[in-house]
Amino acid sequence: GSTNLLAPYDFTWTGVTAGTYTITAKATDNKGAVTTSAPITIKVDTASTVNGVIMGANPFTDQTTVKIPYSSNVALTVSIKDVSGITVWESSGLQTNQTIYLGSGLPTGIYIVTAYYAGTTKIIRLIKN
Q: CB burial class (10 A; 0-12, 13-18, 19+) of residue 114?
């Protein structure tokens, strides 16, 4: 559980694995009375689409995947930069519509992934826990 004492009340759930979850919110007033909300069910998927890029788990712990869908297979260059702007990985021998494995060997941190293909640039953020 998590406690949030200041409005607005929110909760960020990170590092959750794929699956279906039932969650509730519990409120305690200044006199100690407790009320629990009705449960809601949420589904967490491991893949999502961000900026037209199909992504695996993000945040991730070991490695994740990206795939750039395109009408045909064309040359693709992908680079990963750390938050200082330093390129930590780059490959130009890739193609669109190919599953690309990223993040293995990178330390924990936030990264910017840039994909270049057919005159198009796609930028996404990766978080490695």
A: middle
